[in-house]
Amino acid sequence: MQTPLEITYQHVSRSEWIDEYVRSRVAKLEHFSKDIVSCRVVIEQTQNPHRTGNPYRALVEVTLPAKGELVAEKTDKVVDPQVQLRPIIRNAFEAMEKQLKKQTAKRDGKVKQHFGDPLPPVAMVVRKFEADGYGFLKSVSGQEYYFHRNAVLHDDFERLTVGTRVRFEPNEGDEGLQASSVQILDKPGVGGAVEGDEDLDMPAGWEQDPATRH
Q1: What is the pLDDT of residues 94-105, one digit of tens each?
Q2: Is pTM, for the whole model, over 0.70?
Q3: Packed helices 16-32 and 81-107: angle between N→C axes, nearest 10 degrees
Q4: Which of 62, 42, 60 is nearest to 1 (CA)?
Q5: Cα 40-45-48 angle, rounded to 5 deg
Q6: What is the pLDDT of residue 197?
Q7: Cα-flanking dihedrals φ and ψ of residue 83, to 5°?
Q8: CA–CA distances in Å: residue 205 to residues 129, 136, 180, 193
Q9: What is the pLDDT of residues 151-187, one digit of tens each?
């Protein structure tokens, strides 16, 4: 990698075994792609008063020169961190490995991009809790997705406001639908349709009482 590995702990005590395990998994990632510019790993216990159990989460963020940022994460409840954190971290890295394999195959011409391939879904921010570092998206189908600030690409969490339109990767978490790889398309009032979404309207029911917005 061009830049040193970054490992961040949030509400979790730093552990030598986690550091070593993460380094071994990052070394494995480099076998799948020699082009990795940087890698950032976050190990945290989420502090979310609206979700029970404050589950633990592992997030892996990789930067590639052409693709930009790839994000993979795994969230789960933990009783014994010494035992149960390892599979959470492993699952997050395995998800990243799949993304890197796919990107490498595209680069090498083994997978062709076809016109009409579905793009990641579009949604709008309907609630944002700035101080707590999370929010919710609503897709055009009306489904809501929880997202954490670390799932927002380019450190753009602060730029999000209610009504911001984004692309995202949908995931099925243990406590409901979650969004990763959240990327801003445009802010409220900004013109310009996105390819394939010219008829996208504000999701029904997105409006919130201003007193409840954060």
Answers
A1: 989 988 887 776
A2: no
A3: 20
A4: 62
A5: 115
A6: 44
A7: -100, -45
A8: 18, 13, 22, 21
A9: 999 889 999 999 999 999 888 766 788 998 899 988 7
Residue 58 to residue 90: CA distance in whole angstroms: 9
Q: Is the dihedral of CA 16, 21, 24, 29 positive or negative?
A: negative
Q: Quick one: pLDDT at residue 93?
A: 93
Q: Residue 134 above 90 pLDDT? A: yes
* 202 DSSP assignment: P
Joined tokens for residue 113 = 């991009």
**What average pLDDT score do residues 12-31 get?**
92
Task: Name the E strands within 5-158.
Answer: 6-10, 38-45, 56-64, 68-76, 122-129, 134-139, 144-148
Pairing relationship of beta strands 165-173 and 122-129 according to DSSP bridges: antiparallel
Q: In residues, how long is the chain?
A: 214
Beta bridge partners of 138: 124, 144
- pLDDT of 35 over the 70 cut: yes
Residues 6+ apart with CB under 8 A from 10: 42, 43, 44, 45
CA distance 46 to 41: 15
Calculate the alpha carbon distances from 185 to 26, 71, 125, 163, 175 in Å: 30, 17, 11, 11, 27
The bridge status of strand 38-45 relative to strand 6-10 is: parallel
Q: Which one-letter amino acid corresponds to residue 115?
A: F
Location of structure tokens 């592992």: 58
